[in-house]
Amino acid sequence: MVKLAPSILSADFARLAADVRRVEQAGADYLHIDVMDGHFVPNITIGPPVVAALRPESKLVFDVHLMIERPENYIDDFIQAGADLVTVHVEACRHLHRTLARIRERGVRAGVALNPATPEEALKYVLPLVDLVLVMTVNPGFGGQVFISGVVPKIERLREMLARAGAAAEIEVDGGIGTDTAPLVAAAGAGVLVAGSAVFNHGDPARAIREIRAAAGN
Ligand code: DX5
Ligand code: ZN
Protein backbone atom coordinates (compact mmCIF):
# COMPACT_ATOMS: atom_id res chain seq x y z
CA MET A 1 0.00 0.00 0.00
CA VAL A 2 1.65 3.24 -1.08
CA LYS A 3 1.48 6.31 1.13
CA LEU A 4 0.33 9.64 -0.25
CA ALA A 5 2.08 12.87 0.74
CA PRO A 6 0.33 15.96 -0.64
CA SER A 7 2.75 18.88 -1.03
CA ILE A 8 1.38 22.17 0.27
CA LEU A 9 3.52 24.05 -2.25
CA SER A 10 0.50 24.05 -4.56
CA ALA A 11 -2.06 24.75 -1.80
CA ASP A 12 -3.78 28.09 -1.27
CA PHE A 13 -1.39 29.85 1.13
CA ALA A 14 -4.15 32.22 2.24
CA ARG A 15 -6.22 29.22 3.34
CA LEU A 16 -3.52 26.79 4.27
CA ALA A 17 -5.17 25.23 7.32
CA ALA A 18 -8.35 24.54 5.36
CA ASP A 19 -6.40 22.91 2.52
CA VAL A 20 -4.47 20.76 4.99
CA ARG A 21 -7.72 19.67 6.63
CA ARG A 22 -9.13 18.66 3.25
CA VAL A 23 -6.25 16.34 2.40
CA GLU A 24 -6.16 14.95 5.93
CA GLN A 25 -9.85 14.06 5.73
CA ALA A 26 -9.21 12.53 2.31
CA GLY A 27 -6.80 10.03 3.87
CA ALA A 28 -3.39 11.53 3.12
CA ASP A 29 -0.59 9.85 5.04
CA TYR A 30 2.08 12.56 5.25
CA LEU A 31 1.93 16.32 4.76
CA HIS A 32 4.85 17.25 2.52
CA ILE A 33 6.21 20.69 3.39
CA ASP A 34 8.64 22.21 0.88
CA VAL A 35 11.14 24.63 2.38
CA MET A 36 13.21 26.68 -0.11
CA ASP A 37 15.83 29.34 0.60
CA GLY A 38 16.53 31.05 -2.74
CA HIS A 39 20.11 29.68 -2.65
CA PHE A 40 20.00 25.90 -2.90
CA VAL A 41 17.04 26.32 -5.25
CA PRO A 42 15.89 29.40 -7.19
CA ASN A 43 12.72 29.93 -5.15
CA ILE A 44 11.72 30.96 -1.61
CA THR A 45 8.84 29.42 0.30
CA ILE A 46 8.20 29.02 3.99
CA GLY A 47 10.05 28.68 7.27
CA PRO A 48 9.51 27.33 10.79
CA PRO A 49 6.73 29.80 11.82
CA VAL A 50 4.39 28.40 9.16
CA VAL A 51 5.12 24.83 10.24
CA ALA A 52 4.46 25.81 13.87
CA ALA A 53 1.18 27.51 12.90
CA LEU A 54 -0.02 24.38 11.08
CA ARG A 55 1.00 21.95 13.82
CA PRO A 56 -2.11 22.35 16.02
CA GLU A 57 -4.31 22.13 12.92
CA SER A 58 -3.29 18.62 11.86
CA LYS A 59 -2.33 15.16 13.10
CA LEU A 60 -0.63 14.22 9.83
CA VAL A 61 3.02 13.26 9.78
CA PHE A 62 4.84 16.51 8.93
CA ASP A 63 7.33 15.57 6.23
CA VAL A 64 9.64 18.59 5.94
CA HIS A 65 11.71 18.70 2.76
CA LEU A 66 14.58 21.13 3.26
CA MET A 67 15.80 22.53 -0.05
CA ILE A 68 18.20 24.88 1.68
CA GLU A 69 21.93 25.42 2.07
CA ARG A 70 23.41 24.52 5.46
CA PRO A 71 20.33 22.63 6.61
CA GLU A 72 22.16 21.64 9.82
CA ASN A 73 21.65 25.21 11.06
CA TYR A 74 17.86 24.94 10.87
CA ILE A 75 17.08 21.37 11.89
CA ASP A 76 16.33 22.24 15.50
CA ASP A 77 13.99 25.07 14.49
CA PHE A 78 11.93 22.79 12.25
CA ILE A 79 11.76 20.05 14.86
CA GLN A 80 10.72 22.57 17.47
CA ALA A 81 8.03 23.77 15.04
CA GLY A 82 6.59 20.26 14.76
CA ALA A 83 8.39 18.31 12.02
CA ASP A 84 8.13 14.50 12.36
CA LEU A 85 10.49 13.78 9.51
CA VAL A 86 13.28 16.07 8.34
CA THR A 87 14.81 15.51 4.90
CA VAL A 88 18.06 17.14 3.81
CA HIS A 89 19.68 17.09 0.38
CA VAL A 90 22.91 15.18 -0.15
CA GLU A 91 24.05 18.06 -2.36
CA ALA A 92 23.57 20.63 0.44
CA CYS A 93 25.38 18.76 3.22
CA ARG A 94 29.12 18.96 3.72
CA HIS A 95 28.88 16.52 6.62
CA LEU A 96 25.92 14.37 5.69
CA HIS A 97 26.65 11.64 8.23
CA ARG A 98 26.76 14.11 11.11
CA THR A 99 23.61 15.92 9.95
CA LEU A 100 21.56 12.72 9.66
CA ALA A 101 22.78 11.52 13.05
CA ARG A 102 21.81 14.85 14.55
CA ILE A 103 18.26 14.67 13.17
CA ARG A 104 17.77 11.26 14.76
CA GLU A 105 19.34 12.36 18.03
CA ARG A 106 16.67 15.02 18.24
CA GLY A 107 14.04 12.25 18.18
CA VAL A 108 12.56 12.56 14.68
CA ARG A 109 12.97 10.52 11.51
CA ALA A 110 15.83 11.38 9.16
CA GLY A 111 15.41 11.63 5.41
CA VAL A 112 17.91 12.26 2.65
CA ALA A 113 17.07 13.59 -0.82
CA LEU A 114 18.79 13.01 -4.17
CA ASN A 115 18.58 15.46 -7.05
CA PRO A 116 17.93 13.88 -10.46
CA ALA A 117 21.65 14.01 -11.34
CA THR A 118 22.86 12.45 -8.07
CA PRO A 119 23.46 8.69 -8.09
CA GLU A 120 22.14 6.47 -5.31
CA GLU A 121 25.74 5.45 -4.51
CA ALA A 122 26.05 8.78 -2.66
CA LEU A 123 24.13 7.08 0.17
CA LYS A 124 26.31 4.00 0.46
CA TYR A 125 27.92 4.89 3.80
CA VAL A 126 24.94 6.52 5.50
CA LEU A 127 22.23 3.91 4.99
CA PRO A 128 22.10 2.89 8.68
CA LEU A 129 21.24 6.50 9.56
CA VAL A 130 18.41 6.96 7.08
CA ASP A 131 14.67 6.42 7.63
CA LEU A 132 13.60 7.71 4.21
CA VAL A 133 15.24 8.36 0.84
CA LEU A 134 13.59 11.05 -1.26
CA VAL A 135 14.19 10.57 -4.97
CA MET A 136 13.58 13.79 -6.90
CA THR A 137 11.94 13.22 -10.27
CA VAL A 138 12.15 16.93 -11.14
CA ASN A 139 14.87 19.45 -10.41
CA PRO A 140 13.82 20.95 -7.08
CA GLY A 141 12.47 24.49 -6.88
CA PHE A 142 8.97 24.55 -8.32
CA GLY A 143 5.71 22.67 -8.38
CA GLY A 144 4.07 21.58 -11.60
CA GLN A 145 7.17 20.51 -13.50
CA VAL A 146 7.41 17.61 -15.92
CA PHE A 147 8.37 14.19 -14.50
CA ILE A 148 11.87 13.06 -15.54
CA SER A 149 11.34 9.43 -16.53
CA GLY A 150 15.08 8.74 -16.74
CA VAL A 151 15.15 8.72 -12.92
CA VAL A 152 12.91 5.63 -12.63
CA PRO A 153 15.81 3.12 -12.86
CA LYS A 154 17.39 4.91 -9.87
CA ILE A 155 14.35 3.97 -7.77
CA GLU A 156 14.81 0.31 -8.75
CA ARG A 157 18.53 0.34 -7.99
CA LEU A 158 17.91 2.08 -4.69
CA ARG A 159 15.35 -0.55 -3.72
CA GLU A 160 17.90 -3.29 -4.47
CA MET A 161 20.61 -1.41 -2.58
CA LEU A 162 18.39 -1.07 0.51
CA ALA A 163 17.41 -4.75 0.35
CA ARG A 164 21.05 -5.86 0.07
CA ALA A 165 21.97 -3.72 3.06
CA GLY A 166 18.99 -4.96 5.07
CA ALA A 167 17.92 -1.31 5.46
CA ALA A 168 14.28 -0.52 6.17
CA ALA A 169 14.24 3.05 4.80
CA GLU A 170 11.16 4.12 2.87
CA ILE A 171 11.55 5.36 -0.69
CA GLU A 172 9.67 8.59 -1.41
CA VAL A 173 9.33 10.09 -4.88
CA ASP A 174 8.80 13.80 -5.48
CA GLY A 175 8.06 15.74 -8.66
CA GLY A 176 5.56 15.36 -11.46
CA ILE A 177 3.56 12.62 -9.73
CA GLY A 178 -0.01 12.11 -10.91
CA THR A 179 -2.20 9.31 -12.18
CA ASP A 180 0.04 8.87 -15.24
CA THR A 181 3.37 8.57 -13.39
CA ALA A 182 2.27 6.96 -10.10
CA PRO A 183 2.15 3.44 -11.63
CA LEU A 184 5.75 3.77 -12.92
CA VAL A 185 7.26 4.82 -9.58
CA ALA A 186 5.15 2.40 -7.53
CA ALA A 187 6.24 -0.49 -9.76
CA ALA A 188 9.87 0.62 -9.39
CA GLY A 189 9.59 0.42 -5.60
CA ALA A 190 8.47 3.79 -4.28
CA GLY A 191 6.46 3.55 -1.06
CA VAL A 192 5.60 7.23 -0.55
CA LEU A 193 4.35 9.45 -3.37
CA VAL A 194 4.51 13.24 -3.07
CA ALA A 195 1.96 15.09 -5.18
CA GLY A 196 1.50 18.85 -5.23
CA SER A 197 -0.17 20.22 -8.32
CA ALA A 198 -1.97 16.95 -9.08
CA VAL A 199 -3.77 17.24 -5.73
CA PHE A 200 -4.24 20.95 -5.13
CA ASN A 201 -4.83 22.08 -8.70
CA HIS A 202 -7.53 19.43 -9.02
CA GLY A 203 -11.04 20.74 -8.40
CA ASP A 204 -11.54 17.95 -5.85
CA PRO A 205 -8.31 17.18 -3.92
CA ALA A 206 -9.91 14.20 -2.13
CA ARG A 207 -10.78 12.62 -5.44
CA ALA A 208 -7.29 13.35 -6.78
CA ILE A 209 -5.78 11.44 -3.83
CA ARG A 210 -8.07 8.46 -4.45
CA GLU A 211 -7.24 8.46 -8.17
CA ILE A 212 -3.48 8.59 -7.60
CA ARG A 213 -3.73 5.75 -5.06
CA ALA A 214 -5.77 3.68 -7.49
CA ALA A 215 -3.30 4.37 -10.29
CA ALA A 216 -0.47 3.21 -8.03
CA GLY A 217 -2.27 -0.08 -7.54
CA ASN A 218 -4.26 0.37 -4.34
C1 DX5 B 1 9.71 20.55 -5.90
C2 DX5 B 1 9.11 20.13 -4.59
C3 DX5 B 1 7.93 19.25 -4.74
C4 DX5 B 1 6.78 19.90 -5.46
C5 DX5 B 1 6.08 18.83 -6.23
O1 DX5 B 1 10.88 21.23 -5.68
O2 DX5 B 1 10.05 19.43 -3.79
O3 DX5 B 1 7.51 18.68 -3.52
O4 DX5 B 1 5.85 20.51 -4.62
O5 DX5 B 1 5.12 19.42 -7.00
P1 DX5 B 1 4.41 18.65 -8.20
O6 DX5 B 1 3.74 17.44 -7.59
O7 DX5 B 1 3.48 19.64 -8.73
O8 DX5 B 1 5.51 18.25 -9.16
ZN1 ZN C 1 9.30 18.28 -2.00
Explain how this protein is built.
- The structure is a single chain.
- With 218 residues, the protein is of the alpha/beta class.
- It has eight helices and eight strands, in the order βαβαβαβαββαβαβαα.
- The radius of gyration is 16 Å and the shape is globular.
- The longest helix is centred in the last third of the chain and has 14 residues, at 152-165.
- It has an eight-stranded parallel β-sheet.
- The mean pLDDT is 98.
- Bound molecules: D-xylitol-5-phosphate and zinc ion (ZN).
- The site of zinc ion has 6 residues, from β2.
- Residues 7, 32, 34, 65, 174, 194 line the site of zinc ion (ZN).
Brief synopsis:
Keywords: Carbohydrate metabolism, Cobalt, Isomerase, Manganese, Metal-binding, Zinc. The protein has 218 residues and is an alpha/beta fold. 32% of the residues lie in helices and 20% in strands.
- As a whole number of angstroms, the C-alpha radius of gyration is 16 Å
Distance between the termini: 6 Å
Mean pLDDT: 98
Strand content: 15-25%
Low-confidence blocks of residues = none
CATH superfamily: Aldolase class I
Q: Roughly what percent helix? A: 25-40%
The helix tally amounts to 8
InterPro entries: Aldolase_TIM (IPR013785), Ribul_P_3_epim (IPR026019), Ribul_P_3_epim-like (IPR000056), RibuloseP-bd_barrel (IPR011060)
Family: Belongs to the ribulose-phosphate 3-epimerase family.
Organism: Desulfotomaculum copahuensis
Enzyme class: isomerase
